[in-house]
Every structure is written in C-alpha cells, then in structure tokens.
Amino acid sequence: MASAIQTLPGFRDFAPRDCAIRNYLFETWRGVAQTYGFTEYETPLVEDTELYLRKSGDELPTQLFRFEDQGKRDVTLRPEVTASLARLAARVQRENPKPMKWFEIGQCFRYEKPQKGRGREFYQFNVDILGESSAAADAELIAFAIDTMKALGFGPDDFRLRLSDRDAWMIFAEKHSISDPSALLNIIDKMERMPDDKVSDLLSAIGLTRETVDDFIKNGSSPALDAVRADLSARDLLSYTETDLSIVRGLAYYTGVVFEIFDVKKSLRAIAGGGRYDDLVKGIGNVDLPATGFAMGDMVIRHLIEENTLALAQMEAWLDRQSAADVYIVVADEEKRSNALRLLADLRRAGVSTDIALTAAKVAKQFKSAQNTGARLALVIGSEFPEMQLKNLVSRSEETIHPNADAIAHIQAKLDSPDGPLLA
Amino acid sequence: MASAIQTLPGFRDFAPRDCAIRNYLFETWRGVAQTYGFTEYETPLVEDTELYLRKSGDELPTQLFRFEDQGKRDVTLRPEVTASLARLAARVQRENPKPMKWFEIGQCFRYEKPQKGRGREFYQFNVDILGESSAAADAELIAFAIDTMKALGFGPDDFRLRLSDRDAWMIFAEKHSISDPSALLNIIDKMERMPDDKVSDLLSAIGLTRETVDDFIKNGSSPALDAVRADLSARDLLSYTETDLSIVRGLAYYTGVVFEIFDVKKSLRAIAGGGRYDDLVKGIGNVDLPATGFAMGDMVIRHLIEENTLALAQMEAWLDRQSAADVYIVVADEEKRSNALRLLADLRRAGVSTDIALTAAKVAKQFKSAQNTGARLALVIGSEFPEMQLKNLVSRSEETIHPNADAIAHIQAKLDSPDGPLLA
User: Do A370 and A330 meet the contact criterion of CB atoms below 8 Å apart?
Assistant: First the structure.
C-alpha cells in the first residue's frame, strides 16, 4: 500500500469547516469594502521576479518563492500584491475616475520556515486608494482598516492602530540639521530590536540624544497626521488609534503616513499594516499616481478571532447559519422517487437549497441525513403523493401539503417568514 | 524611463470589469452549488509532483507547470484539483456523512503555448460527489452540470451534454470477446482525430468492424446509463443530453459514467467534462471511496457567454447592478465636512454602501463622481445642516431631510423600497 501524499510544508488543505471560516473572512472583508464603495480587482499569482526587484529598489525581498519556469524565466509566486497593483493601476488609470478605491483578496506566498500563524501560502486582503495625495485618503484608508477589525468583532480593548508619518521624521531631521534623514529612519526602524546602548551610540553619531528621539516618537506630529486625526475624530474612530512615530515600516517605498494594527496583548505580530507610497506606481508603471494602501493576512486574524470570545461567537453564529441545504426531501415510498426528483428539480430551480437521499434508505436514516445538512424543513413524499407532509425540523411541527397546493410557493414562504423557532 | 513590467505570457490582470465578470461566474457557480446542497472546500495551489504521477498512473500529464522549489522538491502548480481532493477526502471522510457533496473554485495552471481561450492560469469550478457508487450520484452530478449551464443563461439550443459509460464498452468487449478492453477504449478515444482507414485497420486488428462500433456508439447502453437517463427524465433534463459512447475521456482514472458538455456550434472545445472515478481516492489516499465529479473552466465559458445574446444580456444586467456605492454624500459647504464624515461613518456602519468626495470639489463635480459610483441617492450637506437634501439620481426627484429626522433610517428605507424608477 503506497503511503498517502501529504500537502507540502506550509501549505493548507481547507476541509469544509476551514473553508467556511475562510469564506467568513472573505465575506466580512468584502462587506466592509462594499460599504466603503471599493471595487474588486485581481492580479496574477505568478510574476516576473523583476517586478519585486523594481518595487523594493534593487534590493530583493528575502523569502521570495522564486523559481525558473520552463521558458527559463526568473519568476516568483507573488509575495504581495502592491507591485502588481501598481502595474495594473498605471495601465488602466486613464479610464478610471480618481480616486480609484480598489480592493483584492487572494493568495500570496513566501519561502520560509513554516511556523504557527505563518505558512508558505496565505490569503491577503489588499485595500488601496490611488490618485489622491491628500491626507483625507489616508484617513479614509485608516478608517477602513479600523472598521474591518470592528466588523470582525474586535473592540477598542482588542486592537490598536498605531499611526505614524515618515514625513514627520523629515521635518524632525530638518529641524535638527540631520544631513541624511534615511539613516535616521533606518535607526528608528530597528531601535525596538536593538540594545539601548547601541541605539544611543547610533543616534549620537548623527548628533541626537535618545531623549529627543523618544519625546518626538510620543509627542511629535506632522500636518498630515493632524489632518488624519481630525478626520478620524469626526468619524468617531480616533479612540482606536495612538500616534507612535516609531512605526516607519522598513520597506523603502513608503513615503508619508504609515500605520500598523497591533493586538493589544502584543502576543502576535502586527495584524495589518500599510501607508502611503506616492512613488511606486511611477517606478513600476511610469505614471504619476499617488497612493496609499494596507494589507491584512488570513492566518493571524483567524488566530486572533479564535482567541477572542466575542469575535469567535460572532464567527460561530455565522458558521451555524451556513447550512448545506434548507429543505431535505424524504422519500418514504420508493415508488414515488420520480415525483420526488421532479420536486427536487423544481425547488432548486426556484432557488431553494434542497437535498435528497440519492438512494433508498429508511425514513429514520433520511431524517438523520436531513439533520446533517442543517435543513430547516423536511418534505416527506410517500404513498399518499401528491399529498405530502412538511416537517419543521426546528419547531418539530408538521403540516400536510394538499394535492392542489402550490408546494414550491408554500415552502418558499415558509423559509422566508421566520415563525418563532425558525428565528433561532 | 524604465519600461513597464508586463504580466507573464498566459497570465491575466483582472481590472474591475474583468474581476466583476469573474465574480459573476463565481456567484452563479456558488448559487447552483447552494441550491444543490453542496459544500465548499479548497486545496493548495502548489503540490508535490508525485501527486499527479500517482493520479495518472505513472504517466505524467504533459504541460505541467513544474519546477524545483528552494528545498529541492519537485513541485507543480496544480493542473487540476481532483488529485488534491482525493487526498483531502480520504483524510477527512470518517468525520463526514456520505455522500460528500463538495465543490471548489480556484486557480489551476498549465505550461503550454497561450492561445485564445487557453491561458497558463485559469479558474476552475470543481464539483464532486464522494461516497456513493450508485448511478443516482452520476445523475445528480449531471443534473448539476446542466443546471449550471442553464443558470448562466444557456438554453437547449446552445449546449448539449454527451453521455457515455466506460462500463458499456466493457460489456461490449465481453460480448465481442475482446481480450484487452483498454486497447478498444484507446481506439475509441482517438478515433475522431484519426483517418477512417486507420480506424478500420485498428478495429479489425482486434476483430471488430467500424459498423459494429459506430452502431454501438449511437445505440449502445448500460445499466448505469439507463438509470441516469430515467433520473434525468424525472428532473425534466433529459432533452439537454444525448448518448454518445464515443466519449471515453482519455485519462486512465475514469471508471464508469463519463460526460462532456459541448457548445452546439462546436466552435470551441468541450465546455466541461467529468465522470466516475471509483479507484482514485484509494490510489491516492488508501481509502475506498467511490466518486464522480466534473470541472468547468472560466475562460471558455466567458467566451461562450460573450457570443450568446441571452447569456450576455443576463451577465450585463448583473454587472449593471454592481454599483460601487448606493449613496454619495455631496459636501456643498466645506465648513460641514466633519458632519458629513460623521454621517458617512454612520451610514456605512448601518451597512449602507456610501462614498464621498475626499477633498473639496465643486458640487457639479461631486454629482459627476456620484454618477461614476453608480449611486442611486445623493445626500447633499450644505450650510443648512442639519437640514439636508436627498436627491434620487434615478428619478431626479428631491426631498428635504429635516433636522429632527432619522436620516440613516430614512435613507435605508429609500434604498429598500424601490419606488418606480428605482426599479429600473
């Protein structure tokens, strides 16, 4: 007997429950996108590796899932979507009114050691506003990110959005006569992971003290940050944020307001992150298109939901509503199977989710199958056909459908009008 | 100026309209799956190449998108989903009542010369019934395939499902004392693409005449085919089918009833195909689980829709209903922007799809933006706030929302109750 072939390390099978949880995330993400008036797009899963080289400024990101295809091309399973978005947006921006408010949901890949909450493939939710340089676009995007967390059932005690602005550091650098602001940003980016004395040494080498920097991290600002905060305050979302200028986001391509969403317990890495990237579309697609965007992955967020009582209860309630079928046809007399099949076809054509035991089975077993599908109604077809019995599997009540009744319309009405227990 | 980086040959960007068309297919597919009581699953996009070797019986399919990963593994971007499904189904079948009625929607890949209607990546809709060996499962699956075509707007003059059964040829082979039935199946599989004299030579070599074979192709049957036809007849779907025993489907792993859906004009290859594969789950996952399934790709079906008046009109009507936003907030007085932002947030939180001009703009320009989003209502916030104007952008009517009115509830009611022109 040959051994079973497993999934590759870091890749996942989605059995029905896992797939339903994935779909819950997708539906919630799409729901927020819809209330915000965003439009969906998609880009390829495989790209010319050059695209990521171009994006990150000649310094390839590590952990690329990179290979040579049969045509000897250097290609990569996409690690993220923004580079592809920049190409697509540049190509089609003429025919799209600005701002372009776009979102995407799809798989990304990275080649690294799989660990808890981090696989070699994952789904990512990408949200971007292109063609608008004002801080109002940053605020709209940040509000979107916060409302996404709220839509998933997280409250102000669960997460915090840390707000920052790379331009604030530019202003700071000018005020303190720092000749190379990018060296300063580089220190800020790494200081959380460095020993204190090392940080102080690096800062003093460019003429700064730790106190000056720490004070600016907590109390500094910028015109864009002030505008974003005023906007979020008008939307009643400011309490979900805190200004933290230590967030600069390593990647070279960010240009202004940046942010990250963190688990308040800090037990996990950032839940989502993003910011303004006004030069990327020009670098990749030769079109001047200011932009801001954020991304959120499915693995960390699922983990967080499963650890959060309210978010989990909301997801479980959603999962409970996902029945395989609403109506189950019980064939109590095999002589009437043709009639049952016809009713099955008619119910489905009317849009009613309907299932049936494919082969002859005891009535009790068919009722058990009905339960397994989550059906609310069982339509029993027996020797009395065209008279039938309709059983409400929730309230356990029962009624007769008479030969001349319009069974389809009757069942549809039953499903549409929740009568007491059906509301449960 | 650096040249723009293109998508790789055979890969597609989905700009918003293309993505909406993709989503139309997904929604239609999922809709049929729901009425049939099928449950969604997913499997990885990258698999151990061995999985496909195991599936196809030591003869690897050509055109695999195959490469070596950084861990020196021989891996493949999945060309199809059935092999992965067999693994997953074997692993979880104990905890799932039979039959398992499962579907999947996701990308597949093949490395071949891209051509019209055939790329290196495509979406595939996979529908399978596992754990039921009777012809009733074949009939349920075939009915699903036909109803999928109908749901997309295709009628009996547009497509035909060709029904066959490899077991019918086994019975035929026994009757005609053919010692190697697989040699016969091999001829049948290839005869459409071979010159007539070559076919006759091959057949006579195993003791058959072309006439005998042609007659059986048209008039032959099997117990399973008879049962499937009776079942489809009860469902009023038989007229969409024709028996054509020349369909044997090349792949070695099919074991019983097989079928293909063809464009009646035959201008394109098969639209969908599938059949029974009772041995595959055992071969891959060491579990005895009879199964039948079919797959349909997105590229051929989109092409067919665009060539079909009714199917295209149905899709266009769906696309027209996909507005980016339902309500557009027009800020007629920038002094009131904070109030506008608060209303924007409240409307969205109430689930109303709402957009706004992010920066100050002339009122006429904002109304133009409202049109671009497809909004049905414009909420005008000006100096009279909290009094506001609500304009119906379809009927061109207008009303005043008074300061004490519940604007959110009023707008929700407006959107829910189509009043005349809103029905359009």
Answer: yes
